[in-house]
Amino acid sequence: MRYCVWLNRGCFGLVFSLGLLGNISPAQEKNTELIRMVLELLNDKDKDMRAVGLEQVRTEAKGPEATQQFASQLPKLMPVGQIGLLSALGSRGDASAKPEVLTLLKTSKDDSVRVAAIAAIGELGDMAELPLLVQMLGSETIELQNAAKKSLSRLRGSTVNATLVSEMKNASSGRLALIEVLVMRRASDSMPQLTAMAVDQDPKVRQAAMIALAELGDLTQIPGMIQGVLKAGKGAERDAAEKALVTVCGRNTKPELRAEPILSASAKLDEASQLDLLSTVARVGGAKALAAVETAMNSENRTQHDAGLQAFCKWPDASIADKLAALIEKATNASERSLEFKAFVRIVSLRNDKRSDQERLTRLKQAMSFATSPEEKALVLNRCRLAYSADSMRYVLPYLDQPMFAGVACETIVELAHHREVREPNKSEFDQVLDRVMQISQDAVVKDRAQRYKNGQTWVRPKAGE
What we know:
This protein has 466 residues and is mainly α. Among the domains are: 60 residues, no CATH class; 79 residues, no CATH class. It is built from 29 helices and no strands. Helix 13 packs antiparallel against helix 14 and helix 24 runs parallel beside helix 26.
């Protein structure tokens, strides 16, 4: 029989499970024999044979008796075998394996095995395992913590979400992880609690709650999120809170009404709070939002004017480009002009509308005509990478000969070359320019990308943090 198994090495369907045992008629006896053979495979020294056995654990020999026999092998295997069997038992989905899995989690000294055991509990467990998994959120390694989060996100039970919320209320630490788990579970029933946490005393909890609301919230969460924006500390936290609220406002299918809830709430607040919300109103956009922002910006009151201008420069699209251009041309205050210029470059290069790339490039050329310093010119050259056309490459090309701008020009050109639909129709021209980039650039990544694009190869942008 073992000889027959070896003949079928690597075949996950296993001939013996379908035909080799066909001469044994009683179903129970057949299942028992299959279990015995799978157990033999699990303990085989050959990894391919073990893989065959693991697939059988996942799909064959149904019933709790078989599950328990498979799980009983866990203490007998080396760590690599334990990890494989834990994964197979999790896929099998039979809670009969839980006792052995929990024992291994508590006794193993190998973190990789413990991670696999936690993952299996997510597939096999229920409310009874929730306290243990919550405790594991405070584990000593990131790997164990992440495994606990994933398992909690999969845990079955109608009261899991409510229990996690209760744990979150009572926890002195670990609230951030629990909020993340609720997001992973898409726990829309936790919205009231997350909204309350948006004004928590702990800035990290506030930020996590606002991110969760942005992921899960709907228009009914907007009033609470407005309070979250006002509670957020100015700077990075306020900026992130505003973006979270804008995300939820964007779920209104009628764009002209997206700012309405914020404007209505703002009208009932004191002047300072109204000015604090102007930035969010501007990020949402729309005619009513623009009217509110321009009213503040045109005020003779300096505080109102400054708040209005700051908000105006956070506008989400290029619809105010002409107004910004007019402000830049008549500006007398250097700091205000700098703010307006940066806003102009940002919005005219955005790709969130139906403008053509030629229109984007035309606006960027206009921005370059406004530029009065090397820093401003470099900013324009940088944003030219968002106007996907060969004309953009041709516009940036002369700056390769200017040492002050050669670096940013090289980066912009390889970014444009990254887009095959821009590069391939103009391959001969791009190849010549990419040769120059490889000669000029001091950046190894830029050079590598230039060579790859010239060869018709791809380049995968590293993920953040890599």
